[in-house]
Amino acid sequence: MNILAIDIGGTAIKYGMYDDSGSALTDLYETVTVKTETTNFIMDTVIQIIEEMTVEHSIEGVAVSTAGVVDPIEGNVVFAGPTIPGYTNTPIKQTIENLFHISAEVENDVNCAALGEWWKGAGKHSPSLVCTTIGTGVGGAIILDGNLSHGSSYSAGEIGYLPMAKGKTLQDEASTTALIANYSLLSNIPVDKLNGKIIFEKAKRSEDKAIQAIDDMLSALIQGLLAVTYIISPDTIVIGGGIAAQKEYLENKIEAKLRKSIVSKRMMPKKIVCAELGNSAGMIGAIYNFTRKHSY
């Protein structure tokens, strides 16, 4: 079965063809997410992508991973934050199926990343998995016995909104955005001259300010992981997002901080690992989401 996977983000839309085993059939393509301060043109782009891909490929299904809170049954975006203006109530599944007469399935991007890592990546077939993605913000997803836990409002796992001290949230202190802002204050280097990779490289060269900024971020992250561990008791925690590329630097530090903070060592997850699938995690998870709903 040939399936077109589309991963919709706030800055870019990635896409490519896969078979139903999750193997890529084409290169990974990428285009800019077109938007203004008040609206977006995402569905125009999605329609154009499908039209272009059908010229050279027989598409039997469309698997969509997208930013925003998603109703996975109706396949529409029920809530989207300010990063994608006018995206709330976008009927993705209905639009694709009505225009192209092809089955489509839609799921939240962090949920898809978690499914990808559960199916093919760092948390392969874990009985209970929590995936947290760290980037501009902090996202989360929960998989129990191979099934996503959506919650009644389809927003289960949104740990980035957990309250922290002084009226802040977890993503205010544990995101890459927070890391960069903190390091900028410590070093007097402007934010626009920094990114997460630069800070990690400085830390690996034993720069004290970079080490301190990362440690501050991880200390905040641990508060979120503690809450998840106490409530869900997951077998596996997967750390995703761009930060996962720092696997060798991060994994042992995160596990040590969690072990030091947790009330009992017997409550520790069996595995705390960085994600393995990189930029393709969301699309691979979207493929899995599609195939399990269309297995004949």
Automatic annotation (TrEMBL):
Q: Which UniProt keywords apply?
A: Kinase, Transferase
Check the record and name the SUPFAM superfamilies matching this protein: Actin-like ATPase domain (SSF53067)
GO MF: kinase activity
* Family to which this protein belongs: Belongs to the ROK (NagC/XylR) family.
The protein here is known as Sugar kinase of the NBD/HSP70 family, may contain an N-terminal HTH domain
